[in-house]
What does this fold into?
Amino acid sequence: MPPSSGHDKADAALSAEQAAGAPAELRGRLHSWRHPAVLSAAGLSVAAGFAQFSVTAALPDVAAAFGEIRPDDASIAAQAGLAATTLGLGLAVIRFASLGALPLSALADRAGRRRVVLTCAALGLLFTVAAAFSPGFWWFVAIAAVGRPLLSTTNAVAGVIAAEETRTRDRAYALALITAGYGIGAGTAALLRGIIGEALGFRELFGLAVVFLVAVPLLGRMLEEPARFNRVRALGAARRWSLDGIPRSGLLGGRFRIMALTTLAIAFLTGPVNTFLFLFGENVLHMTRATTALAVIAAAPIGLLGLLSGRALADRLGRVPSAAGAHALMAIAGVITYSGTPTGLIAGYLATIYAASAYAPAQGALAAELFPTSMRATVAGAITAVNVIGAVLGLVGFGMLTDRFDSFGMAAIGIAAPVLLIAPLYLRLPETRHLELEQSAPEEISPA
It folds into this structure.
């Protein structure tokens, strides 16, 4: 007997048992992670990933275009082109604009997932193209900031669609696919810049978003409104907008509070660690574009390995311990990334990619499975808003620490240390693996 056959039988038995957990009208209308609607949602995440990560990938070019690089000056500001505080504030403004994803995502709980995600994707990509024509740094910041909440909403609602379209045994796969889609889009932006070289400035890179803009109507043809959402809307479920869980156990009681704090911590770390990566590598460590492009290429299989192992751990070990472990690993990897050598940057970057990819299936499943359908998109928007606040605080703090100590390494330690201390909070969440959404967060019971 093959070693996996026991697990397969157990999964089959579990799936049969779980079928009773889904309402009768949904049976036969829940799909696998390969369903066209899930694939279409992943395609929209590819577009959002390309548009949003272009800001990070092109940061050295933006700083050089709107600032002044002085090779004879050893200070961080002279090597980067603009002061780290200026860059941090500009990037913080762009990130802070993503708070607009909260009302936009909440709209998906009323107007529908499909309409909101397609509209936001089209408008977000349109503003990305417009940013290519920015006449100055703060113009660039302003235009990118307008598009940011639209793109954040696109990715958030795409994850909601993937979760609601799938059965419990396929949910971690579907959410991993959404994460992979965003990663492919982000990687494409970095890879194109590395392969084409100096000929591809930030204006050309942002202009390429028009390709994804044209693809939005095509993806929309495969996208459908999730049956779960249609069922709740037909029943006229009207819930009080409350993100507090019961029972409460002190300040950190409640599902949303814990999810918010852990999300804030991860964003506080990954916001600056990911955003300053290319600037640090190319303008401070003097790595070539080709070298950073090779690192991005190497990140693809590493990220895939992280997604696969994260999916397996989330389904076998559980969502809670998987998320906690990956959270801690990201904090450690962030310090390694800015340790001050090209080897450290590449090793830390790849470790961060692995940890973030492994984190995504568990965290995404928890975010979907802990809250009922009638408020799931609202919660996704709220989580996105918390993510924004964390990233803004991290970017500003990282920039200030870098200028204060004239060291990216010290800034990374200052950012990562508190994040590591937050990891045990996941253990206060209920485990949701092997549960249908109607079991883990029924409509008639306030999320506890």
